[in-house]
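User: Fold this one for me? It's Rhomboid family intramembrane serine protease.
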Amino acid sequence: MMNNINQAVLILIIANVLVSMKGFKDYSFLNKYKFQVNSILSGEKIRTLTSGFLHVDWMHLGFNMYALYLFGDIVAQILGISSFLLIYFGSLLSGSLYSLKYHKDEPYYSAVGASGAVSGIVYASILLYPAMELYLFFIPIPIPGYIFGVGYLLYSIYGMKKQLGNVGHSAHLGGAIGGFAITLLLNPSLFETNKILVISLGIPIILLLLFGDKLKNL
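Assistant: Here's what I get for Rhomboid family intramembrane serine protease.
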């Protein structure tokens, strides 16, 4: 029987699927709740949250929910439901805020996706369980969790630069920053127990936070 912690992850997955399906079929619904710079700056702040439950297609939805399925339960099991939800929604909002900052001069920039929230959960799980190994798709050898996390972030940077699809790539970075920071605030002992990992993951985040705007000029 599924325990309460697993149910929290499952409820988020179901919510993402149902809201995304509504958006697939109803463009006016998608347009009303997606992330859009001009609308948010005009006062529709709710979009910073609702856009995180919409996706452009099944592949986009599937990738994010697969990552949430893999990593969400680790965070929930170790920290409990309340902290898991705090990291999830905190990362979602930090992803939206970073996107707003990065695209502030593009009033019609829009995006959707749970990427910010999922990135935060990915980074939280790596900090909490650095020994994890993953078997992904058709790769026959295990991949250390921190390599997956860094690869996820690099894909986000590439997507930001190339503006791939109607996907919130900049939210990946903002969400990773949020998840990283919130997890450390909730568990400051990680600075001692996983000091090398904290530094290793923190350096690229800090560099990207400081110099991320220069990606537009590359």
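One thing worth pointing out: Residues 4-25 form the longest helix (22 residues).
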